[in-house]
Amino acid sequence: MTDRYEDLMTRLEALGDECYRRMQAARDRIYQTAPLVSMSWRSSGVVLSPDGRLSVEVEEFGEHHRRRHYCLWSELDGTIREMPAPVDGEEQVVFSPDPRLGAGGKDPGLGELSKLVRRSMGQAAADAWLSLLSPGIRLVHAEPGDPVIAQLGGLPALPINSWPVWPGNGPLSHVLSVDCASLAMLMPGWNMPDSGRLAFFYFDGGHYTGYHGSGVGGWDHATQAGAQVLWLHPEDSTPEHLTHVATPAPPGLTAYPAVALTAVPALTWPGVEDPESERIWTASGLGTPDPETGRPPEADALYEALDVRLGAGDPSHRVGGYPEPIQARTAEWEVEQAELALRGASAPSAGPAVDEGVRGWRLLAQIDSDRTAKMMWGDVGKLYFMIRPDDLRARRFDQVRFAWQCT
């Protein structure tokens, strides 16, 4: 009996040591890649099974708040194995965002962001700017075991004879497909479709001109047909009309390499020239505006600090939240100019009416340049697909407007 007890205590100590080793390894890994990011790692109490094995459940969140949930089992011979955690009713969802990441929450990331903002400007301006934060979904390259909710590049699954074409120019390239059910769950306040897929297409011009930059953009409203979004909803199509396999690309068009993407909740903020940001710069009583930009130096200092904080890491693919502008003008401003031109209205560059129109646009998807997918939009640019909330609720994806920017 004593030998069996000592053996049990030895295995219990070894299991505790393995948990500690894994926690330290996760902490060191995050420190090497993102030292300012808080780590979350926890384990349950050790459970003794009737057969004598020991187990402990482990839950850890990495630098992107990606969740890993598994069990460590100590076998009778002392071997420690990692096994999938038992699935209960609450874990049947494809992906569950960390609730601490919601805008205005108490998560460490928001606290760090608050300190950064308050170091750049006064309390009133900082509070006003922080109130503009909006949650979004970052799409990052999936690793083995990650839930895949989107596909960058590759071939889409389309209804027969429905590959988008820009009349007079050629077929569009498939750049992204996203699972709507996952989006609806992750973004409950956005009125996303709860079934089917959203497929994004763009005429990149590279297959015809050799240059990845086709001239499609907000600067020329006549080019808007060079970017399209399809909502593929199988409940409204018979199986023979909606294929369940990849649709071959049209002749002459080479598909981008496919890259699986998973979802990471993220906080986003408006651009420095967003009307709401500019309202804060005007009303905040900050420093003397720069004669070239018209902004107080504190505003530029804040956005420079944000750029340094974000660094030049992985591609920034995104659904929802604010777009990340590369140029001073925001993507919302560019698509508003294109929309006015499409309606035949005059397109003033500034003024209360323009600001009101700019506020009405929401980011549907942002697709960054991505070496793995061999996507390069101009000089390391980004594609922006924008939509108005009323059109999203009505599923009028033909009303999506497009812009792209590069350095």
Overview of this protein structure:
With 407 residues, the protein is α+β, with helices and mostly antiparallel strands. It has two domains: 2-91, no CATH class; 99-405, YwqG-like (Hypothetical protein YwqG fold), CATH 2.30.320. Helices cover 28% and strands 23% of the residues. It is built from ten helices and 17 strands. The strands form four sheets. Strands 12-11-10-7-13-6-14 form a seven-stranded antiparallel sheet. Strands 1, 2, 3, 4 and 5 form a five-stranded antiparallel sheet that branches. Strands 15-16-17 form a three-stranded antiparallel sheet. Helix 8 (331-342) crosses helix 9 (352-359). The longest helix is centred in the first third of the chain and has 32 residues, at 2-33. The radius of gyration is 25 Å and the shape is globular. The chain starts with a helix and ends with a strand.
List key phrases describing it:
7-stranded antiparallel β-sheet; 5-stranded antiparallel β-sheet; Hypothetical protein YwqG fold; alpha+beta; about 400 residues; 17 strands; globular
Summarize it.
The chain has helices spanning 2-33, 108-120, 123-130, 180-186, 206-209, 275-283, 297-310, 331-342, 352-359, 389-393; strands at residues 40-43, 47-48, 54-61, 67-74, 80-84, 134-141, 150-152, 165-166, 170-171, 173-179, 197-202, 227-232, 259-268, 317-319, 362-368, 382-387, 401-405. The chain is α+β, with helices and mostly antiparallel strands and 407 residues long.
